């Protein structure tokens, strides 16, 4: 399975990675673990910290996936996933 993963909010610029896994589907949690393992330091540490933060959201093919569904939400070959911090505003 090959997926495009974009990570926003770490370092000073967005990062995109084509991730290849030996399976036909994976949960977002499994994807996060594989992603953290393939990113070189020091960016790898920033990525792991960001993706463990409750303020990050996963967007799979344009649909925001709540963090409590990351274990059950599958991604498949060709999907595009964006991880980004939630923006909250008040007034």
Short description:
With 91 residues, the protein is an alpha+beta fold. The protein has helices at 28-38, 43-52, and strands at residues 2-7, 15-20, 25-27, 56-60, 63-65, 74-76, 80-85. It has one domain (2-85): Beta-grasp domain (Ubiquitin-like (UB roll)).
How is this structure best described in words?
This protein is globular. The protein starts with a strand and ends in a 6-residue tail after the last strand. The strands form 2 sheets. Strands 2-1-7-4-5 form a 5-stranded mixed beta sheet. The chain has a two-stranded antiparallel ribbon with strand order 3-6. The protein contains 2 helices and 7 strands. The chain has a single domain, classed as Ubiquitin-like (UB roll), CATH 3.10.20. The model has no long low-confidence stretch (mean pLDDT 87). A hairpin with a 7-residue loop joins strand 1 and strand 2. The longest helix has 11 residues, at 28-38. It is an alpha+beta fold and 91 residues long.
What top-tier CATH class fits best? Alpha Beta
Overall CATH architecture: Roll
Structural class: alpha+beta
Question: Helix share of residues?
Answer: 10-25%
Question: Which regions are unreliable across 5 or more consecutive residues at pLDDT < 50?
Answer: none
CATH names the topology as Ubiquitin-like (UB roll)
Distance between the termini: 44 Å
CATH superfamily: Beta-grasp domain
Strand order of the largest sheet: 2-1-7-4-5
Write down the overall geometry.
globular
